[in-house]
Every structure is written in structure tokens, then in C-alpha cells.
Amino acid sequence: MASQAVAAPRRRPRGTALLGTVPFFAYVTIFLIIPTLVVVIGAFAGDDGGVSLANVRALTNDYILDAFGRSIVLSAVSALIGAIGGALLAYALVTAGGTIRRIVTSAAGVLAQFGGVTLAFAFLATIGLSGFVTVWLKDHLSLDIYSGGVWLFELPGLILVYTYFQIPLMLIVFLPALDGIRPQWREACENLGATTWQYWTRVAGPLLAPAFLGSTLLLFANAFSAYATAAALVSQGSPIIPLQIRGALTSEVVLGQQNLGKAMALGMVIVVAVVMGLYSLLERRTAKWLG
């Protein structure tokens, strides 16, 4: 019986295959590229419509530099606390496994996105001036957590609130790196007489360091760009740069600061771009052994 020739699979035209990427590039163009161009152009636009560097020079004003400094401190501290707490929780889940891991990771996926007005209200209802924990401590233990000042509406309070969603985010992004650590590596170290400290400092630690630092940078960028939670929690003043931008765009007292707000937004874009560039470099190094 004569063998039948197998028909070669038909290849789709290259143009047809690229049609599936059209929604993605349209989304990126509308919500990323165009707003970035508006910010960049507006930052160098004068009140008369011409090109001006006045808005960029205004970024050296003390109140703007202070806002950038507080934003960096808020992002760095909350990222560091979230990274350490999330890494420890991720390690506990790797050793636990099973149903507990699925439950905790599912909860982390929800809590990492729990922010904005809802999160601010949750903290106000819990440890606010009239929160049930605040009232209970005052009535039963005669303990006033605000004896030293209303810290919840200042930088320490923002750090606490931001840490709430930083820890679960760290768990999500750092867990794959811990999964990449093979048990055979620890067994080999033990067979060679290495201690637990030597294993973590000479094998697992150096391998996990790029992933840990990269995840910490991701947490920094997440906190640095957060706005809704701080806007709902801080009703007066603008302690961080996103709230300064809001004030410049919506202020009814000082008019004509829209372009100054765009200049501050450009500064934020530059900071986030640098951080995410470092994150990308660390992710490439992690992928060499994680893959």
C-alpha cells in the first residue's frame, strides 16, 4: 500500500498572528504612552504656551523636595518591612505546603489589591481616634495610643497602612524564587558537612539575593506611586508627592499650577523608571538559575 504523504501544517500569515497583540498595544498607548507624553510636554510648557524650564526649576523648592523625601522614606521603609515580613511568610509556606499554602496565597492575592478608601476606612474604624481598638484600650487598659500625637494621619501612620498591602505583595512575587531553591542543594551541603548558617550564607542566600532585592524594588515602586490610600487618610496637608500633585492640579487658592503638577509627576516617572530598570536587571539575573 502506497504511503500517503503527510500534508505540511499551514502557517498563518504573520500579519494575522500579530492581530492578537493589537488590544495590548492599544491599552499601553492609551493608558501609558499618551499620559506620559502629556506629563513630559506639560512639564516644559509655560503659562503662555511656549517652552519654559520654570516648572522644572520649581522642583527645587523646599516643600517639593520635602514631599519627595517623605515619599522616598515612606516607600523605602514600607518596602523593607514588607519585604522582610513577606519573605519570612513565603518561606513558612514553602515548608508548610498543601492546603495552608493555597489558602494563604489566595488571601494574599486579595489583600495585595486591598487599598484606597476601603483600606483607609478599615484602619480608621480599627485604630482611628474613635476606632474600636483605640476605645477598648482606653476603657479597659487606660492606654491612649495617641498620647504622643495623632500619628495615624502622619508619616508613621502611612507606613503602617502601606505595610498592610506590601507584605502580601512580597509573598506573591517572592514565592516563585523560593520554589526555585532545590532540596538537593541543601542535602548536598549537609553531606559535605556544611551547617545551616553556611548553607544560607553561601548557597541559598546569594541565589535569593537578586530576587529579594528585585522584589523590594518592586514594593518601593508600588508604595511610591500609591495615591488613593494616602488621599483618603490624610485630609489636610500634602506630606507626600502624590498629594502635592493633587494640590497643584485642584487648588482653588493658587491658580495656574497645573504645569507644576506635571513637573512633579515627571519627577515621579523618573524615579519609578530608575527603580524598575534596576528591578529588570535583577530579574534577569534571577532568571538565569530560576529557569
TrEMBL record:
<dbReference type="InterPro" id="IPR035906">
    <property type="entry name" value="MetI-like_sf"/>
</dbReference>
<feature type="transmembrane region" description="Helical">
    <location>
        <begin position="157"/>
        <end position="178"/>
    </location>
</feature>
<feature type="transmembrane region" description="Helical">
    <location>
        <begin position="114"/>
        <end position="137"/>
    </location>
</feature>
<feature type="domain" description="ABC transmembrane type-1">
    <location>
        <begin position="68"/>
        <end position="281"/>
    </location>
</feature>
<dbReference type="GO" id="GO:0005886">
    <property type="term" value="C:plasma membrane"/>
</dbReference>
<feature type="transmembrane region" description="Helical">
    <location>
        <begin position="263"/>
        <end position="282"/>
    </location>
</feature>
<comment type="similarity">
    <text>Belongs to the binding-protein-dependent transport system permease family. CysTW subfamily.</text>
</comment>
<dbReference type="Pfam" id="PF00528">
    <property type="entry name" value="BPD_transp_1"/>
</dbReference>
<keyword id="KW-0472">Membrane</keyword>
<keyword id="KW-0812">Transmembrane</keyword>
<feature type="transmembrane region" description="Helical">
    <location>
        <begin position="21"/>
        <end position="45"/>
    </location>
</feature>
<feature type="transmembrane region" description="Helical">
    <location>
        <begin position="72"/>
        <end position="94"/>
    </location>
</feature>
<keyword id="KW-0813">Transport</keyword>
<keyword id="KW-1003">Cell membrane</keyword>
<dbReference type="GO" id="GO:0055085">
    <property type="term" value="P:transmembrane transport"/>
</dbReference>
<feature type="transmembrane region" description="Helical">
    <location>
        <begin position="207"/>
        <end position="228"/>
    </location>
</feature>
<dbReference type="InterPro" id="IPR000515">
    <property type="entry name" value="MetI-like"/>
</dbReference>
<protein>
    <submittedName>
        <fullName>ABC transporter permease</fullName>
    </submittedName>
</protein>
<keyword id="KW-1133">Transmembrane helix</keyword>
